[in-house]
């Protein structure tokens, strides 16, 4: 039921008030628009002027850098001519050539060393005599040597930055060298003094945020002022305007974010014409725009003052209609208050209806749960009688007879009925977990056919079972439901087919990292995985929440994974789930490792002569058929059985007969129930061993008896009942 306020007629506002409001809005908008337009124009002008100034300054730096490189290239040209003349004259001694190279670069600050290398890269001559005949060109020089060898051009080449012997940065400028036949004979290489360029850039006054950088045409930084050792060798090739300038050998300006500190900068870049180099100049945009910001503050203050003045004038004019507006306001307030009260009343009525509907639904669910639990309890009593008599009949007939085969089929049918009642009790939340040590491999193998039927023909079942699995401590019925529940979820996630994997493994877990993780220790893991659609992170985060489901109406209750989580935690373990869209889902259930124990006796073995066969059992159950059948089973085992149908009769028997060794009592009985009887018995006989058996057990009621007790779940096998009674008697005989 939705509630909304009713439509109300709009009161006519005086014409003068509307006109004043419109006028005020128009004037204020004009002031704001004009102010912003002026500020943006001023900002654009400041940036444009800065770009023009940087472009002119960058041109000067580029021209000087180009002249410096031409000087070095000229020296290299004279070296090439001298080498040709020396070859024609029959060659000169290496020492003389080394001395000549040293003389040629004397006074040339742009170069620290000049060398001649053969086609293999070995230095033949050098202004640094120690290198001649003893060293190879650096790796960067060998790359340029290969370029000259494969390109018949005299164009000079420049390498990236490399460390010189003195620790400073240098770069190679190389020219192609040929012999008298025009064949490639090596290169002449000049080691550039990059500090020379930085010192020249330093001599030009920039503002404190200014920076000048020498780049290779591929974008690699060769030198910079202020000098930053950490950026030498880095590349700006992907940044505008470097990308266009370096690719097309042109000049450009732009605004860009600094790759060093992320600050906004205005940058100009100019490429050299004859050499694969470029020079850039940049300044901080914040520093350039600082005067504009101060001017903007003045503009904004002026605009605010103008708005205040105009607003004051309009306020004075508006006072003429104040009385009319006041009266209209009071009327509207009274009307709004009445409408608000009406809306709140309607909302309260709607909320009450929703609450009552929810209460009725909860009462219906509780009633269904109680009815289901009661039906399951009665049905378990019937199955107890059926299974008990089948056990008795199986003991009395030949193992290979047709009758034995029919009895076995009857027993299996009755056990399937018991499984059904377990599911009903689980729905009604009246199902205590009876954990026992078991091999999960056996559970998975027995369920393979059921899983294939549940999954459908278009899904392949794959089992990966541990070679030597530990025993897991878990309720057998509930672990089957868990695996089946996970398999159904996997089937729904693979509408077009796929692979469903069931895996078992032994594992040791460390301290938990998430709430659903189990404590540290040894566990037996069973994993159910699929190749389905998977879950998004937001869905995965809610996977264990009760009633959360992504399935359509009628396709899921949202309780599947929450029940899996609850069983694992109640059993002392935990659950981990992994999933991603398109990658499927994997749910791992960790169950505590059980201590090694002797195998359970086969069916009927308890009747062969239990430890307590000479003991006297007081049997209490309000259902006569259950009581009689259970009594006969116990008698076949050799026990002396005393029967009574209620708690009062049991207390009378105990008061009169001191030979009673153990009490076997139902839990849910009219009048005095099993836990209350246990408390009363403990007052009379503190050491009396007690075993409960019931098809409708309330775990909290049993735990409230404040005693040690064992629970046998109806319907039971004779061997199960015998094992519990013998264990209780053994505990009684063993000193605490």
From TrEMBL:
<feature type="transmembrane region" description="Helical">
    <location>
        <begin position="298"/>
        <end position="318"/>
    </location>
</feature>
<feature type="modified residue" description="4-aspartylphosphate">
    <location>
        <position position="666"/>
    </location>
</feature>
<dbReference type="InterPro" id="IPR003594">
    <property type="entry name" value="HATPase_dom"/>
</dbReference>
<protein>
    <recommendedName>
        <fullName>histidine kinase</fullName>
        <ecNumber>2.7.13.3</ecNumber>
    </recommendedName>
</protein>
<keyword id="KW-1133">Transmembrane helix</keyword>
<dbReference type="Pfam" id="PF00512">
    <property type="entry name" value="HisKA"/>
</dbReference>
<dbReference type="GO" id="GO:0000155">
    <property type="term" value="F:phosphorelay sensor kinase activity"/>
</dbReference>
<dbReference type="InterPro" id="IPR054327">
    <property type="entry name" value="His-kinase-like_sensor"/>
</dbReference>
<keyword id="KW-0472">Membrane</keyword>
<dbReference type="InterPro" id="IPR005467">
    <property type="entry name" value="His_kinase_dom"/>
</dbReference>
<dbReference type="Pfam" id="PF22588">
    <property type="entry name" value="dCache_1_like"/>
</dbReference>
<dbReference type="InterPro" id="IPR036890">
    <property type="entry name" value="HATPase_C_sf"/>
</dbReference>
<keyword id="KW-0812">Transmembrane</keyword>
<dbReference type="InterPro" id="IPR011006">
    <property type="entry name" value="CheY-like_superfamily"/>
</dbReference>
<dbReference type="InterPro" id="IPR003661">
    <property type="entry name" value="HisK_dim/P_dom"/>
</dbReference>
<feature type="domain" description="Response regulatory">
    <location>
        <begin position="616"/>
        <end position="729"/>
    </location>
</feature>
<keyword id="KW-0597">Phosphoprotein</keyword>
<dbReference type="Pfam" id="PF02518">
    <property type="entry name" value="HATPase_c"/>
</dbReference>
<dbReference type="InterPro" id="IPR036097">
    <property type="entry name" value="HisK_dim/P_sf"/>
</dbReference>
<feature type="domain" description="Histidine kinase">
    <location>
        <begin position="374"/>
        <end position="595"/>
    </location>
</feature>
<dbReference type="InterPro" id="IPR001789">
    <property type="entry name" value="Sig_transdc_resp-reg_receiver"/>
</dbReference>
<feature type="transmembrane region" description="Helical">
    <location>
        <begin position="20"/>
        <end position="42"/>
    </location>
</feature>
<dbReference type="Pfam" id="PF00072">
    <property type="entry name" value="Response_reg"/>
</dbReference>
<dbReference type="InterPro" id="IPR004358">
    <property type="entry name" value="Sig_transdc_His_kin-like_C"/>
</dbReference>
């Amino acid at each position: 039921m939705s509630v909304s306020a009713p439509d109300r007629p709009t009161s006519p506002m005086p014409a003068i008030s509307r006109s004043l409001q419109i006028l005020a809005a128009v004037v204020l908008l004009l002031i704001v628009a004009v102010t912003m337009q002026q500020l943006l124009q001023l900002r654009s002008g400041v940036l444009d002027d800065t770009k023009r100034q940087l472009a002119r300054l960058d041109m000067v730096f580029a021209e000087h850098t180009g002249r410096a490189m031409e000087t070095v290239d000229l020296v290299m040209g004279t070296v090439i001519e001298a080498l040709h003349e020396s070859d024609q004259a029959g060659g000169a001694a290496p020492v003389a050539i080394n001395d000549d190279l040293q003389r040629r670069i004397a006074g040339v600050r742009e170069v620290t060393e000049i060398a001649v290398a053969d086609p293999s890269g070995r230095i033949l001559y050098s202004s640094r005599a120690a290198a001649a005949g003893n060293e190879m060109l650096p790796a960067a020089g060998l790359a340029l040597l290969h370029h000259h060898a494969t390109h018949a051009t005299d164009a000079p080449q420049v390498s990236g930055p490399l460390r010189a012997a003195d620790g400073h940065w240098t770069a190679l400028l190389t020219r192609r060298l040929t012999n008298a036949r025009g064949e490639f004979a090596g290169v002449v290489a000049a080691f550039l003094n990059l500090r020379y360029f930085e010192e020249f850039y330093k001599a030009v006054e920039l503002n404190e945020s200014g920076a000048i950088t020498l780049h290779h045409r591929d974008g690699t930084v060769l030198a910079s002022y202020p000098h930053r050792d950490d950026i030498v060798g880095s590349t700006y090739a992907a940044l505008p305007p470097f990308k266009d300038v370096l690719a097309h050998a042109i000049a450009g300006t732009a605004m860009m974010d600094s790759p060093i500190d992320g600050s906004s900068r205005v940058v100009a870049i100019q490429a050299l014409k004859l050499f694969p180099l470029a020079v850039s100049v940049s300044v901080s945009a914040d520093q350039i725009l600082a005067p504009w910001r101060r001017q903007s503050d003045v503009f904004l203050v002026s605009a605010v003052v103008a708005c205040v003045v105009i607003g004051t004038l309009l306020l004075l004019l508006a006072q003429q209609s104040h009385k009319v507006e006041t009266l209209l306001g009071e009327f509207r307030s009274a009307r709004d208050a009445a409408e608000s009260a009406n809306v709140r009343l309607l909302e309260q009525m709607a909320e009450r209806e929703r609450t009552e509907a929810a209460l009725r639904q909860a009462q219906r669910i509780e009633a269904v749960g109680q009815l289901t639990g009661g039906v399951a309890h009665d049905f378990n009593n019937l199955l107890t009688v059926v299974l008990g008599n089948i056990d008795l009949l199986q003991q009395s007939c030949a193992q290979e007879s047709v009758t034995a085969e029919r009895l076995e089929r009857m027993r299996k049918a009755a056990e399937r009925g018991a499984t059904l009642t377990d599911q009903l009790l689980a729905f009604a939340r009246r199902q205590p977990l009876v954990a026992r040590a078991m091999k999960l491999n056996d559970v998975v193998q027995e369920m393979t056919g059921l899983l294939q039927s549940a999954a459908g023909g278009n899904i392949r079942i794959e089992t990966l079972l541990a070679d030597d699995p530990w025993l897991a401590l878990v309720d057998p019925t509930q672990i089957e439901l868990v695996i089946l529940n996970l398999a159904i979820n996997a089937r729904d996630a693979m509408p077009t087919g796929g692979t469903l994997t069931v895996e078992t493994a032994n594992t040791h877990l460390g301290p938990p990292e998430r709430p659903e993780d189990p404590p540290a220790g040894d566990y037996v893991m069973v994993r159910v995985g699929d190749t389905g659609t998977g879950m998004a992170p937001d869905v995965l985060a809610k996977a264990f929440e009760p009633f959360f489901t992504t399935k359509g109406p009628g396709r899921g209750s949202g309780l599947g994974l929450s029940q899996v989580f609850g069983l694992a935690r109640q059993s002392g373990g935990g659950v981990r789930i992994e999933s991603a869209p398109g990658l499927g889902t994997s749910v791992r259930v960790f169950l505590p490792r059980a201590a090694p124990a002797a195998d359970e006796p086969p069916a009927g073995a308890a009747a062969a002569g239990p430890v307590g066969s000479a003991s006297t059992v007081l049997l209490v159950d309000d259902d006569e058929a259950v009581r009689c059948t259970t009594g006969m089973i116990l008698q076949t085992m050799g026990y002396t059985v005393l029967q009574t149908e209620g708690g009062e009769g049991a207390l009378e028997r105990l008061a009169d007969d001191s030979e009673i060794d153990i009490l076997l009592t139902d839990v849910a009985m009219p009048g005095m129930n099993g836990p209350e009887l246990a408390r009363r018995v403990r007052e009379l006989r503190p050491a009396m061993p007690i075993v409960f058996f019931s098809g409708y057990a309330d775990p909290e009621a049993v735990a409230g008896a404040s005693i040690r007790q064992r629970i046998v779940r109806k319907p039971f096998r004779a061997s199960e009942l015998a094992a519990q009674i013998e264990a209780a008697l053994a505990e009684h005989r063993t000193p605490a």
